[in-house]
Amino acid sequence: MARPKAWLSWSSGKDSAWSLEIIRRQGEFDVQALLTTVNSEHRRVAMHAVRESLLRAQADRAGLPLVTVPIPSPCPNAVYEEAMARAVARARGEGITHMIFGDLFLQDIRKYREDKLAGSGIEPVFPLWGLDTQELAQEMVRQGLRAVLTCVDPRKLDASFAGRLFDAELLADLPPGTDPCGENGEFHTFAYAGPMFRTPLDVERGIVLERDGFVFADVCDQKPDV
Description:
The chain has helices spanning 14-26, 52-62, 77-93, 107-117, 133-142, 168-173; strands at residues 5-9, 30-39, 44-45, 66-71, 98-100, 123-125, 146-152, 187-193, 204-211, 214-220. The strands form two sheets. Strands 1, 2, 3, 4, 5 and 6 form a six-stranded mixed beta sheet that branches. Strands 8-7-10-9 form a four-stranded antiparallel beta sheet, with no helix packed on it. The chain is an alpha/beta fold.
């Protein structure tokens, strides 16, 4: 019997990457593509600020097509929802019945996703939902997932964490009250290695700068698109 076809909401970060790994291990769904919103002007992943060239390299290493949803910056919510509705309609037209998300415990985010997919013919799936984030973060590191902190909210975590590797040392250094997976918006990441990829991406950390109240650390490939 054919498995249900799914797209996976891909932020370029560790949680979406780990969701892909878990879904593949479980074998219940046939993941057909990765879905990502991209800043149409700067050609970077929304919020994570990862270069589109690296996003495409991730998809290649994961062995999956990439579906990008261009959005402006700043992006009014109505514009975002229209763009996502078109993507959902495309998915449904291609026989997709499920959308996979890497959310961990924020109930309002989950409800938003469920509400927006209601009646679309596509059902949301949350493979990491409710897991202990301390245990989850440690498991990711033990299993070889590697990532860079590309965005830090300095109101929630010291700016010096921008550009650091997501590894055991980082988890030990996080101050009390910080979610080890950054689920409260403390930080966002770019995953460059792990069991979900055929081979690691060859990347290096670039400049760190502050913009719009956040601290961003650039990540470059060997031939950065600047």
